[in-house]
Amino acid sequence: MSTLLTQLELGPMFRALMRNKIGALLIALQIALTLTIMVNAIFMMQERSQQMARASGLDEANTFYLSNTVFAQNYNLKTALQQDLQRIRQTPGVVDATQINAIPLSGGGWSMSLQTKAGDDIEGTGTAVYMVDEHGINSMGLELIAGENFQNSDIGWREEGSTKWPPKAIISKALAETMFEGDWKNALGKTVYIDNHQPVQVIGIIKALQAPWNGWNGVERSMLVPQQLDSKGSRFFIRTEPGRRDELMPVIEKMLAESDRGRIIRNVNSMEQTRDESYQEHQATNTILLTVIIVLTLITGFGIVGLAMFSINRRTRQIGTRRALGASQWQVMRYFMLENLLISFAGVILGAAGAIGLNIWLVATFEMSPLSPVLLVIGVVALLIVGQLAVSYPALIASKISPATATRGRA
Amino acid sequence: MFSYYLKLAYLSCKRTWGMTLLMVCAIGLGIGASMTTITVNYLMSANPIPQKSEQLFFVQMDSWQPNDPYSDDGDAPTQLTYRDATYLWQAQKAKRQTIQSGMAAVIEPADKEVLPFMVQGRANSADFFPMFDVPFLYGSGWDHQADLKKERVIVINAELNERLFGGKDSTGQTVRMAGEDYKITGVMDRWNPKPRFYDISTGSFNDVEEVFVPFSLITEQKFDRSGNTNCWKPTESGFQAFLDSECIWVQLWVELPTAQDKEAYFSFMNAYAKEQNQYGRFARTDNNKLRDVMQWLEYAEVVSDDASMMMAMSLMFLLVCLLNTVGLLLAKFLGKASEIGVRQALGASRNDLFIQHLIESGCIGLAGGLLGLVLAILGLEAIKVMYGDWIRDLAQLDFTLVAMAIGLAIVSALLAGLYPTWRACQVQPSVQLKSQ
């Protein structure tokens, strides 16, 4: 061990570092701060990416929706709705269409609380509510994994201001799991209660369907109820054959707008567009964080290059002397590489402590989750590599210093 | 002497241009990133109505269910039930008060060639306009009588006036909205407070609405409500049942000029809660709140977590850039040791040397600051593109921010330059001259 230490010149190296404490300290501090920021920024990016990667349960590539706002007086909403749906469904290229009260991930919707027992003081489970007809599952491209779909006879009208709920519902697997202690299959056929007292039977379970609010911790919990809205403002959700969505969006908008002048067709949006808008902030924040990490690493790297160049310039004569006394080029290079490793090591240890500290503060202030240790290890290794890469060029230059320099006058 | 030092700084920077460039870039990037995030935070936490923010109060009453408080921290709900809000409004106990909710309706232009379109609006009371110092291009708001008599009156914004009337004075004319004619009492001038403090329930930085109508019309079901509605108690079907329900969806602002006014109003609210408690409502009678504009915005956390987190990150980033600069300047000044020795030997005092090097670091700081300013402008543009429309007004540099950026740059550079400069002045001329 002691021979190895002597071989690696750690003793003289340490003494040399002590003579230029400030320079070494500055690099170590820079590395420490870089690690602190880098690890936490990557962690924040990971959290957002995971949120964005969650499946909505919809056939996003082939679905779109539009808002239908009626302004004419004495308008027969019920007849018009049936006519509209029929027209849309008959359009070539359309797979299916339904009326719906809210759009997943759009930010606006309806939520209710479901409970397994009736009563006023029973704690319930919050869920998003989608009102659809028997075409709902097919129009959204949902996967029914247990039970059955609604029948045409199940569909009722929901008058404006009504607080009555239909007796049947289809719920998402995540909602079933929350309500029935992880055993989602158990939910099928059970009666649950909505609005504290009204019984609803679970007739089907869908694999996934996200709520309208992406930031809600219950975003995977949703339910379908067999109702059509008797309302002046409604939405149609439409699914097309693969690849025909963009072509059909303007066609259907025009068809509906022209068929009836007593209403406005607006907000014609694809589901993909809605997802992008929904996660726009997440996406932007991730881009900024990535830029910060890259620029920060570059600055630290170049800082190391600059300081190493300087210290080599100042020590040209000593290096020449060492070379003249028999040190090989490789030994000179190794000296500077090792010196950087020593400094970087101090930096990453300090930085690891800083990263954990910053994470504790972030957790306390912004309700973030704690950092994973694996990420910290990756960050440490990455920065040690960056340090070695940065110092390799100056070290190479140092190794090229000719032994003859020792004999010349100026340092 | 100053210009001579400037020349020396120029020559020195030119000689070690790589290092100088690195320092300028480091300071520039640090300042650019910090200024970008500081700007967004500064504008998010701005006072949208500084002249009277301390006299305007947001009323919160805890009508929420007895077993489970509305929010995790136990605070009162952020909206009121219709019956509580109208009771407080009708009492007219404050200097001014406005009851409000969002609305939306379809406007049918007189010109039949133009397609009908949807507008976002606000249903509020007459006091809304004088209370919030709303500027008018033409006319004014309506009066209290119009509220009581449920008159079909409307205030439209300048953009809508442009669209419907080509920007001419349209007061007295009518607009066809939701199937009825509304008489225009005033056209609002451009007004877009950020945050939109008077209603942040659907987004703190939304734009001001296009139309304003008396709140009393909303209860006549003349048009659709918009905004959030939260209910905890099952209710019967029908609109009247909804109005009588425990659902919260109405907001109330009051203007109370003095501390005594505030105290009096607060006891009035609490007395009302106590009285309601006797009928089985208001389980928590002393959990009512009267917050002024800035207290309310702070409580509602309008500055997004992302924005504060980014600011913390970017300030640490600036610190890294400064450490970088300290190291490089140190290297640079110590590299000039022999030159400093010669200058000292030729009679330059330590003071002279100190000023000379401080000017050199100041110049680097100034260059970095200017670069930072350019980067901040680019950064804000990027933020506008990436975050979308709502951030538009929150990503603009004003004079204060520009001055702050330059100040920050120079202070940073001088701080970074201080230690290296001091070290440079410690050079012993004899040692340097001997080694020549």
UniProtKB/TrEMBL annotation, chain A:
Localization, UniProt: Cell membrane
Keywords: Cell membrane, Membrane, Transmembrane, Transmembrane helix
Transmembrane segment boundaries: 22-45, 288-312, 341-362, 374-398
One GO cellular component term noted in the UniProt record for this chain: plasma membrane
UniProt GO MF annotations: transmembrane transporter activity
Subcellular location, principal: membrane
Top-level taxon of origin: Bacteria
InterPro entries: ABC3_permease_C, Macrolide_Exporter_MacB, MetI-like
Topological category with respect to the lipid bilayer: Multi-pass membrane protein
All residue ranges annotated as the ABC3 transporter permease C-terminal domain in the record: 291-403
Family: Belongs to the ABC-4 integral membrane protein family.
The protein, known as: FtsX-like permease family protein
Organism taxonomic ancestry: Bacteria, Pseudomonadati, Pseudomonadota, Gammaproteobacteria, Chromatiales
TrEMBL record, chain B:
Keyword Iron: no
Key words of the record: Cell membrane, Membrane, Transmembrane, Transmembrane helix
Positions of the ABC3 transporter permease C-terminal domain: 312-429
GO annotation, cellular component aspect: plasma membrane
Statement: the UniProt record of this protein carries the keyword Transmembrane: yes
Boundaries of every MacB-like periplasmic core domain copy: 20-224
TM annotation in the entry: 20-43, 315-334, 354-378, 399-422
Species, as recorded: Rheinheimera tangshanensis
GO molecular function, one term: transmembrane transporter activity
The protein's name in its UniProt record: FtsX-like permease family protein
Mode of membrane association: Multi-pass membrane protein
